[in-house]
Amino acid sequence: MNPPPSTAAADEARAVEILRRVRRLEVRTSRLADDTLAGRYASVFKGRGMDFDRVRNYVPGDDVRAIDWNVTARTGDPYIKLFTEERELTILLLIDISGSSDFGSAPDSKRELSAEAAGVLAASAIQNRDKVGLILFTDRVELYIPPAKGRRHVLRLIREALFFQPTQRGTNIGAALDFANQVISRRAIVFLVSDFCPSPPFAEALAALRKKLTITNKHHDLIAVAVTDPLEATLPDVGRLCIEDAETGEVLELNTSLPLVRQTYRDQSLARRTSTAATIRSTGVDLLEFTTGSNWLPALVNFFRKRRHRAG
């Protein structure tokens, strides 16, 4: 009988497989950014950030929306604000890697879908010479990679998003948003990627989420990306089934052969998702919804299209 492979050999094999997967995902995300999102990212985000430069006297024909009312009131003469366009933007990816992110009934888990979507956004940003940073979080911030540029940097972001091993299993979105507000002082584009599964009590959790989203959206351009799995919305008829909460370890036994059980599960799942989506949108934060096992790219393209139309 052959001896088992050494730990070093096993670790090396795993490292090779990780690198292979990262390279494949990097190639795919780069192609998607090139072929599908070319121009859309730049038209939506590029040049949206403006830095205050100075004030000058109002001249007939100037945009009255640019009037600086404080200076005008102080001097008695109308003044307008002048701005200079930022040469580059900062994109910050906040990715939930809590226990529930490992779930997936499709070939890919929610975490793998999150990493792919983040990779596409990062590749689009790098192509437009913007900087990209990464925050991985559970119920604490697990990893922070400051914004930077370059293909090697994107590869690192993808690798960490896919394979970083967190120390915790729970979720605290508010803590991640607070951290982002502390480390990024200038206005940034912040993509918050999560399955948005708040721990009970549900109403209190949504109220806390609404407060944190509102605060962050005042400082940054915050965009929420909800990643879900089909089995989270409906149960198959497979008889008795034990369901374990990936974050708390709580186990619940259900008899899925009973129509009432499946219907109750569907209704409660829909109610939670609807309430969460309504809470996010009530803060003025844009919401994207991606589902494992489906083609999520059209939703991203449509989001860019709507944003460009709204900006116009």
Structure, explained:
This protein has 312 residues and is an alpha/beta fold. Among the domains are: 49-85, no CATH class; 88-229 and 285-311, Rossmann fold (3-Layer(aba) Sandwich), CATH 3.40.50. The protein has nine helices and ten strands. Strands 5-4-3-6-7-10 form a six-stranded mixed β-sheet, sandwiched between helices. It has a two-stranded antiparallel ribbon with strand order 1-2. α1 crosses α5 (151-163) and α7 packs parallel to α8 (259-282). It is globular. The N and C termini lie far apart (70 Å). The mean pLDDT is 86.
Quick tags:
single chain; 9 helices; six-stranded mixed β-sheet; 10 strands; Rossmann fold; two-stranded antiparallel ribbon
Major pleated sheet: 6 strands, mixed
Please identify the top-level CATH class of the domain at 88-229 and 285-311.
Answer: Alpha Beta
* Strand runs, count: 10
Q: Roughly what percent helix?
A: 40-55%
Order of helices and strands: HHEHEEHEEHHEHEEEHEH
Tally of helical runs: 9
| Strand portion | 15-25%
Described by the principal axes of the CA atoms, the overall outline is globular
Q: What is the annotated CATH architecture of the domain at 88-229 and 285-311? A: 3-Layer(aba) Sandwich
Question: Remind me, CATH topology of the domain at 88-229 and 285-311?
Answer: Rossmann fold
Question: Brief overview, please?
Answer:
Among the domains are: 49-85, no CATH class; 88-229 and 285-311, Rossmann fold.
